Amino acid sequence: EDPSLERHFKGHRDAVTSVDFSLNKKQLASGSMDSCLMIWSMKPQMRAYRFVGHKDAVMCVQFSPSGHLVASGSRDKTVRLWVPSVKGESTVFKAHTATVRSVHFSSDGQSLVTASDDKTVKVWTVHRQKFLFSLSQHINWVRCARFSPDGRLIVSASDDKTVKLWDKTSRECIHSFCEHGGFVNDVDFHPSGTCIAAAGTDNTVKVWDVRMNRLLQHYQGNAVVNSLSFHPSGNYLITASNDSTLKILDLLEGRLLYTLHGHQGPATCVAFSRAGDFFASGGSDEQVMVWKTNFDVTDYGDVLKAQKSGTSVDGTRHTPVEMDCGVHLKKTKPQDSGRNQEQQEEETSLTNTLEHIMGQLDVLTQTVSILEQRLTLTEDKLKECLENQQKIIQNK
């Protein structure tokens, strides 16, 4: 079955720049040149939230891994963290000295990496909202920066036509991929963490192995590629291009699988849901579209479990190091439909419990953050009192 259009969201008043699903697929966030961030509910008849706070175009949005926060970056040079609720409260990071093009949470939700036209990549702690360090070797705008799945590496893409790989701990650039013939618009890690895909204004998508630093695959298109997203199974890559199309590439076969026409004008952004059963796209036509994936009726759960344990889907052991880009993963057969009801119910209740725990943790972290701020205030007050006492004593 081909991918099919599931929902169609209208509400932005200018080009959509970025889309992202929450963990549970209940919400979809989008950013737009209209300076707004929208949170759409995947449930029919549920109203969307429009978050106003940025003073200029919103260039990027992302849900935190638990789904309890949304980060956005803007042309107003700031990064905001939102609580995606009715109130839509947000805190501001005075981050960069130019447009912020990209925000990305680490998979543990503790760090945030941002990329900007000020040619730097910056890393922040999410809960203390504290700036940690800058990576500054790019010599032009940085369009995109992302953490590897294990959080040890950062990849960044720039208008200096390079993709750089950084070690988060040593803060050094490990490698520069310079094979792009144009600006690099987007880059992301394969779910296995062993390779990256980058999209460019030279109409190409390139996939590199980050252990050998060699080019694995090269897809030549007919238009500028603005955005890409890996399917959680690691078997597919979806792209959004200036010729208004979305293309789904089969990484196992190394070929184009589908071309989808939905947008009028350039397709600007695309993202798979965390389970891979949906993907969303945005365009200069102000539309946000949600598609049902439909291809390959695999039980992705198995693929993901196998990847985590380092066993390939066909049952042979792999150390994660050998998992060559996940590109050798065999397609799994649809599971026996006789999976007993109880097992599924157990899994659902477990998922719900976990989501609840994550929610509680987020609340705790926010509380701790507030307590820390209060403590700082108290300390400052105390210091002031002591200084005043010193002065009084001296005057006496």
From TrEMBL:
GO biological process: cilium assembly; microtubule-based process; multicellular organismal-level homeostasis
Keywords in alphabetical order: Coiled coil, Repeat, WD repeat
SMART domains: WD40
Region Disordered, residue ranges: 328-350
Pfam family, one: WD40
Residue intervals passing through the bilayer: none
InterPro entries: WD40/YVTN_repeat-like_dom_sf (IPR015943), WD40_PAC1 (IPR020472), WD40_repeat_CS (IPR019775), WD40_repeat_dom_sf (IPR036322), WD40_rpt (IPR001680), WDR55/POC1 (IPR050505)
Entry GO terms, CC: centriole; ciliary basal body
WD repeats: 9-50, 51-82, 93-134, 135-176, 177-218, 225-259, 260-292
UniProt xrefs under Gene3D superfamilies: YVTN repeat-like/Quinoprotein amine dehydrogenase
Tagged with keyword Coiled coil: yes
Function text: May play an important role in centriole assembly and/or stability and ciliogenesis.
The family this protein is said to belong to: Belongs to the WD repeat POC1 family.
Protein name as catalogued: POC1 centriolar protein homolog A
The species this protein was found in: Jacana jacana
Taxonomic lineage from the root: Eukaryota, Metazoa, Chordata, Craniata, Vertebrata
